[in-house]
Amino acid sequence: GLLSSVIVLYQSEVAPASMRGALSTLYQLGITFGILLAAFIDQVIVDRHEGWRVVMGIICLPALFLLVGMLFLPRSPRWLVQQNRRKEALAVLKTIREEADAVREEEEIFQELERSREEGKPAWSELFSGRVARLLVLGILL
């Protein structure tokens, strides 16, 4: 649920622009393959004596790997800039980009956030007016 959205969001923030679509696609492919693998394991093991316990244990392994792996992920550069921690954001970007690209991207993030602050917070009423309202209705009907 929420984790599926957060992972794609994090990937899009730290991946180079040229790889974002491919990484999102690979993530969805991995999810689909995981579901297929889980169904196969379930069919093979669950009907055996105490098989349901083995299946539940196997299910916990990827979650455990994800939990431990998350401890080693750097913070989101965008979040760091939002918290006025630009030096930390730049340090994170330098670990995943060339120095010149990291400096440029950190500045782009800062400028984008400044433009957002100038525009102000969006109002809920914007959902029900103009093109956004039509897209919302279309999305609900589909």
Element-by-element helix/strand order: HHHHHHH
Termini distance? 20 Å
**Which residues form runs of ≥5 with pLDDT under 50?**
none
Q: Strand tally, please?
A: 0
How much of the sequence lies in strands comes to under 5%
Shape: extended
How much is the average pLDDT?
89
Round the Cα radius of gyration to an integer and report it.
Answer: 21 Å
What is the number of helices?
A: 7
Structural class: mainly alpha
Largest sheet: none
Helix content: over 70%
Task: Describe the structure in your own words.
It is a single chain. With 142 residues, the chain is mainly alpha-helical. It is 77% helix and 0% strand. The protein contains seven helices and no strands. It has helices at residues 2-14, 20-45, 51-70, 77-82, 86-96, 99-119, 130-141. Helix 5 crosses helix 6. The two termini are 20 Å apart.
Secondary structure: elements and pairs:
Layout (H helix, E strand, L loop, with lengths): L1 H13 L5 H26 L5 H20 L6 H6 L3 H11 L2 H21 L10 H12 L1
Quick tags:
142 residues; mainly alpha; 7 helices; 0% strand; extended
Give a quick rundown of the structure.
With 142 residues, the chain is mostly helical. The protein has helices at 2-14, 20-45, 51-70, 77-82, 86-96, 99-119, 130-141. The longest helix has 26 residues, at 20-45.
